[in-house]
Amino acid sequence: MRAVILAAGRGKRLGTATDDRPKCLVELAGRSLLDRQLAALRAGGAPDVAVVAGWHAERFDAHPLTVFRNDRWAETTQVESLLAADPWLRAGPVVVSYGDIVYSAETVHALIACPHELAIAYDPGWRAVWERRFAEPLDDAETFRLGEAGLLTEIGGRPESVTEVEGQYVGLLKFTPPAWALVREVVRTEVAVHGADLTGLLRFLLRERATAIGTTPVRGPWWEFDQPADIAAGLGVLAELDRRERT
């Protein structure tokens, strides 16, 4: 199993911390997000890791990783970054991680074990996380519903109440080559997904292609570092993940 970290974007919502580096190279509590991601991915069953670079791509020169480039990072989305990693995604199953999240090795292992060709990790206890990050959690949350056998039935809409939110996608997913072949075909032929982010792509696959998307709940803590307030609020999560890694 391989893994790809999407790290091409500017990450400007995090403020001056990303003036000279991508978000995954921001150091918090003594370690970069990338260091924690590599540890979780490798311990979880994906020892071979690449990054898709764009903003300050040269900062990855010091890291012994495969580097794919999205030179159009400023005008494209995560979908374009995924396309940059096409050689790996065609060759075998790949775990894909956003560059601004941290998570446990157990979550990675569970995602890899999910039997579906396309699968995502989600947080069923999302509300506790969102209440720590946002004054009005429902303003930022997206619709998320599950059907039989844990298959995803709805994602990415604007919820009117918490009853439409059974969890939140955390930015960690898995593609097998057949699932990736479908994504490549959709991106090539469907105008509706041009400019969409990955959540929008998943929503399209559900609604227009009736794609089976498996899900697995997170195991242990996770966190997203998208804005400055997330740093202070997420230090406890970093400490817990570091403790788990040591034991």
TrEMBL record:
Keyword Glycoprotein: no
Superkingdom of the organism of origin: Bacteria
MobA-like NTP transferase domain ranges (all copies): 3-138
Cited Pfam families: NTP_transf_3
GO molecular function, one term: nucleotidyltransferase activity
InterPro entries: GlmU-like, MobA-like_NTP_Trfase, Nucleotide-diphossugar_trans
Claim: Repressor is one of the keywords in the record: no
Keywords recorded for this protein, A-Z: Kinase, Nucleotidyltransferase, Transferase
Name the UniProt record assigns to this protein: Choline kinase
